[in-house]
From TrEMBL:
Organism of this sequence: Vibrio olivae
Keyword entries, A-Z: DNA-binding, Transcription, Transcription regulation
Signal peptide: none
Name of the protein in question: GntR family transcriptional regulator
Pfam families: FCD, GntR
Tree of life domain: Bacteria
Amino acid sequence: MSSDDKIYNKLLKTIVAHQLPPGARLPEDKLSEAFNVSRTGIRKVLQRLAVEQFVLIRPNKGAEVYAPDQQEANEVFDSRILIETQLIPKLVRNWDRTLSAQFRQIVVQEKKAEQDDDLSNAILLTSQFHYELAKIAGNSVLASFVEKLCYRSSLVIASYGSINSVGCDCGDHGHLIDLLDKGDEEGATVWMKHHLQQIKQSLDIDRQRSSDIDFLQLFSS
């Protein structure tokens, strides 16, 4: 993996996990110092993230973490509802005990993150649950699209959500696994739609943001 890819992955993870909140400025000089690379290298990574709509670059003002508005937040979850519910039939056909055990381990980690009030890890885990689930349906193109939507919705949750947005208040993923274990296609489809609608409804669009970031400490590891 190239140096640019490592920086890209690190920045993407911190954005998705709400360690770099929406609206936070991303000064090239501070990032260059934190990663010990040139500003040119940082600029390339920021431009890549901007293409994927995780970063916004303003002329003469520099880069900042992209902050989705209410319309975009709704569209992201509406897209997920449309696609992820349609994947359920193939998902049920490909489901087995081994997969059930693997996904129950993710649920265990999710519940621990919720108990610890660890929003960053909870966001990452719930995204992982959904995009790994999509891969099982056997359509790599749609699975890749779902993965991108999960990242985008993670940014939405980082902007306007809370631990409740990824916690049991919006539906325990273990219940979906129970339905898949039974081969209950209709029940799993209904559950998925309701689950994503509940997350959408949990968002607080008027939430205030903070952008005071210590880049050296954040990227010291």
